[in-house]
Design goal:
Strand content: under 5%
Largest sheet: none
Number of strands: 0
Radius of gyration: 23 Å
Distance between the termini: 48 Å
Number of domains: 2
Helix content: over 70%
CATH superfamily of the largest domain: MFS general substrate transporter like domains
CATH topology of the largest domain: Growth Hormone, Chain: A
CATH class of the largest domain: Mainly Alpha
Length: 436
């Protein structure tokens, strides 16, 4: 097969392999660090976890992506990318080690969160740099394949890193600090791997004139507002509706994740260790739902249309989520984890497809930056709302019902839009068809 042949050629490219090693080690360390952070905040026996603490942890993990992400490229076009990978990962190793020290010395929570926030903020530059550097190590003919392989491999590495963290936490050591130190070691390995690449290989080239940093940052902000205005045009309303729908569905998923964390910690398990194992199982089941969505969505969205598939996903969630969630029992919640993983990822794939098809190429990158901001801010906002509603043991029928109503609102609103779009298409078809 041509794809398999190209993949083999790709992996023979020495510099591509080295860049891939940096990605695998960096994102594997991210998975380890994030699971250790969640375990410390939610499942430490000495801590009385609250929804507010969970919301704070989510903000630490996700807000840097939202606030720093759109502006990272401005700085990456000024710094040597190889140096970003070297110093960025070494800095994260030191900060992660500092986080481990803070865990064992029981400092005030705000100091711990500042340390974790710094680790995740640097991550945005490393990931953006990995994407920007890819064309410097792969020829144009195989760039699409490389863009498919690298992020997928990185996501798999992050998942495996999270699994390794669970294993170390439950089997080798019950110390969250030890798991964080494992993440620090992987960050250090990623930084040292960058030394195998020539300093100038990954760019950027120094010859081109660049605007002043303040001007570049202001231009980036203006470009993001231009992308929002671009979505307001009549021909791109489906993309705007899909983005709004996905933002609300992401909000629902975030609220239910906080609910699940509290249930695993205080209601469904007798001990924190048992709760952590149950959470790991739920995450794995939800991941299976994400995989199922990748298999099912191309077929269903191809026949229904991606907009109508979003309607089906949201309507299914509105019906199934209260039925599976209100018993607050392990079995139904695991089924709900699978269903919501499938529904959320199915809607996201459809939204990506609509945005890619509807938005002009010159605006596509900026629109996806806006999409990224909405996606993460909705998740953090959901955690904040859940913190206000949830009781200490996580059993909140009002939150479950509120989420079901939001899913139902998305289904009804998106269905009305799709029906109107289909009827306009039918009217145009009748007007342009020749008389018999």
């Amino acid at each position: 097969m041509p794809v398999v042949r190209d993949l083999r050629v790709l992996l023979r490219l020495r510099d591509f392999r080295r860049l891939l090693y940096i990605r695998l080690l960096s994102q594997g360390a991210d998975g380890v660090y994030q699971v250790a952070l969640a375990a410390y905040v939610v499942f430490s026996p000495e801590k009385q976890t609250s929804p507010t603490a969970i919301a704070s942890a989510m903000a630490v993990l996700l807000l840097p992506y939202s606030l720093i992400g759109p502006f990272a490229g401005v700085l990456l076009d000024r710094w040597r990318r190889r140096q970003v990978f070297l110093y960025g990962n070494v800095l994260r190793a030191l900060l992660a080690a500092a986080t481990a020290v803070l865990m064992v010395t029981h400092v005030p929570d705000w100091l711990f969160y500042v340390s974790a926030l710094c680790v995740t903020a640097v991550n945005r530059f490393v990931l953006a740099g990995l994407s920007a550097a890819l064309p410097r190590v792969v020829d144009a003919e195989r760039l699409v394949l490389a863009n498919s392989l690298s992020p997928t491999a990185g996501t798999l590495a992050a998942t495996l890193g999270g699994g390794l963290a669970f294993l170390v936490r439950l089997v080798v050591s019950d110390s969250d600090a030890a798991v964080v130190l494992l993440g620090a070691l992987l960050y250090l390995c990623a930084g040292l791997t960058a030394l195998s690449l020539a300093p100038t290989l990954l760019g950027p080239d120094r010859g081109a004139a660049r605007p002043h940093l303040r001007t570049a940052l202001a231009d980036t902000a203006r470009e993001l507002f231009a992308a929002v205005r671009h979505l307001g045009a009549p021909r791109r309303r489906e993309a705007a509706w899909a983005l709004a729908s996905m933002t609300l569905m992401r909000f629902c998923y975030g609220a239910l994740l906080v609910l699940l964390l509290m249930l695993c910690r205080y209601h469904l398990a007798a001990t924190p260790e048992e709760g952590l194992r149950l959470l790991g199982l739920a995450v794995a089941v939800s991941g299976a739902g994400f995989f199922a969505a990748a298999v099912v969505t191309p077929w269903t969205a191809g026949r229904l249309g991606p907009g109508w598939w979003i309607v089906v996903c949201a309507a299914s969630a509105a019906l199934l989520e209260p039925a599976l969630g209100l018993p607050f029992a392990t079995g139904p919640l695991l089924v709900a984890a699978f269903v919501l993983g499938l529904i959320t990822q199915g809607a996201k794939i459809s939204t990506d497809t609509i945005v890619q098809a509807s938005v002009e190429d010159g605006f596509r990158g900026r629109v996806f930056s806006v999409y990224d901001v909405l996606f993460n801010v909705a998740f953090v906002g959901a955690a904040g709302v859940a913190a206000l509603i949830l009781p200490p043991d996580g059993r909140s029928a009002p939150l479950v019902i509120l989420v079901a109503l939001l899913y139902g609102t998305v289904a009804v609103a998106m269905a009305r839009f799709e029906r109107g779009k289909d009827s306009k298409r039918g009217d145009v078809s009748r007007e342009t068809s020749p008389p018999r």
